[in-house]
Amino acid sequence: MSVKKMTVLSLYTAVALILFVVESVIPMPVPLPFVKLGLANIITLIVLVCYSPKDAFLVLMLRIFLASVFYGQIVYLVYSMAGGMLCFLADVVINRLLKGKYIYITAVFGALFHNAGQMMAAFFFLGKGVLPYFPYMVLCGMITGLFTGILANILVLRLKRLNMCFYSM
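Below the sequence we write its predicted structure tokens.
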């Protein structure tokens, strides 16, 4: 990996961490503890479309690890890793099927799979008492995934116009 590419991916990781921190102070209109916008996923989507799945995976893993270190809880690492891995797999598959277009659809599927991964982790640790939350997670995931996908799409289009998107399907 070139120094330039490593630097750019490091900057994307830093921006994802900043979005994670910003998101943690934004009050959500829905009074459910698990609902988040998923702003950091915008960066994962941008790197997936503009670079490669391998690069997006690297940025995602670094962001999850560093956020859990900053957040100070191992539970965050477990839930984020479970959700992040399923989200990433869905993002890669859907992005390939859609040939890098319709990023907002990719983001919706990613959000749904992220919620499924977190629900599986919660079920493992907390038992079946978490299952009633799943329909709410699906609804919120569709809305937040669409929101982050639209933002990622806008940014990718701008990066392409600036010739800063280097990966082609």
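The mean pLDDT is 89.
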